[in-house]
Request: fold
Amino acid sequence: MCLRLKQWILFLIIAAALIIYPYAVPSYYFTALLTQVLIFSIFTMGLNLLAGYTGLSSLGHGALFGSGAYTAALLMKYVSKNMWLGFSAGVLVAGVLAGLFALISLRTTRVYFLFITIALGQLIWAIVFGWRSLTGGDDGMPGIGKPTVWSSITLSGGTTYYYFALISFLIVLFIIYRITTSPFGHVLIGIRENENRIRHLGYNVWLYKFIAFVVSGLLTGLGGVIWTYYNGFVSPRDASFEFSAEALLIVILGGRGTLFGPLVGTVVVVLIKNIIAAFTQRWLFVLGVAYILTILYARSGVVGTLGIRIKRWVGEWGE
Amino acid sequence: MKTVTIEGLSKSFEGLQALLDVSFSVERGERLVIIGPNGAGKTTLFNLITGEIPPTQGRVFLFEEDVTHMPPHRRTHLGIARTFQITNLFPNLTLHENIFLAVLGVNSQKFKIHQPVSTCRDILTKIERLLIEWDLQEYKRAPVKNLSYGIQRQVEVIMALSSGARILLLDEPTSGLSPAETGTLTSMILGLDPNVTLIIIEHDMDVAFRLAHNMIVLHQGVVIAAGPPEKIKADPKVKEIYLGEE
Reply:
């Protein structure tokens, strides 16, 4: 019980810090930075469910993010500014697309799985890039405006959107927590650890992977929708291979198969990109060094490596 | 009741005849030991019974149901489980988590996604019972890769059992064990529920003769002798090509 108390205290401190954050920082710039971190964390947490917990490293998740983002943008531009419509449609499209990706890619494993997910992702990117009349091609879709929450109430204003992103982030965090501590989540970990053995214990491995892929896609698509509403702009970059690769590297950097790994990884990468970039043009170099150090010295990522120490203090999550 | 029936089973791998026209059947509670030199096709036979690979010819029946075209995970649900010649566990997961996955595999809660594991009371109670029964409570939080090889082999058998299987296939359960550990594991197998059907591949002849009700001798994919242990011991062909080499 003592451990539970510590967990709750830690959780409340973090929650309080996140709530007062926009008023505690010197300028809106920092609020915007954290808003981006929260949105990309939704993406990387979604990817982590598949790549970290199930052991299927997808390099096509950028396309799922992009499909959510573009669905929301297209609806805003051509159909309706209603936010709930955008959410439902964006998440649904990403989920269906993830299902199709899964049907094709789950016939393979390991490096072949990587390749096939790259190919599938590039296919979506090519559609987005090539269909100029609909998506604006490489110009992207600028000026799509702010979505409406209810009749004339719109979701605008940086601080408001920060809270919106924060709530969305916490919901996704809770969903991932619930899934990964559930029997279903344990089976995913079992598949990652020893696929051949788990098959002989009576599990339909394919079905588990398929569900994990779709849920991962739904959450990734949600990230895409929230990103579109935040940015008011989408471009093929949001569905690109580079984006997929960056997300996978963030998951590895932060800690595969850990609850907070994607968040920590995203924080590190966004900080390097924005803060180091203020001092030197060579921020990509710094990022590269960070990845190499992770692979060499901290295979299980920042959270996986430091987590053991923190766990001793906080107690095991999910125990 | 016949729990396992094999009819004219053959398997060839790109020209290599691993098994040729093997037939036998096993009664409920029978302990059948399969012996034979390396490469005789013993593990291939197990892979065919559990459905890991399809046969080239012949049929497999479990509980008198034709399962020749049934995928492995569905066969598990009929009540068959196996262990592996090379220890095949979840090395990074704890003993508790290993057994949890084994019990969950045939439990209706295995797709439960919205509630934590702690809500699966029936499974957790069953794991506690198994750990007490096999005297392994002290190791339950340890990753199995940190446990001794002897205990890992025991865990293999416990995991196969914990699914509630009525047919157990044990692939060289004592391989690589010290004489003392072999003794422990043999007693463990002898102490199993007499209604459980066992098919055991065994290299250790003492263990094989201790466990067997019936034996089958495989040589180059062909059954060269079958029957109770005394008959096998006396069979001149077996002596010549198998026991003679010992």
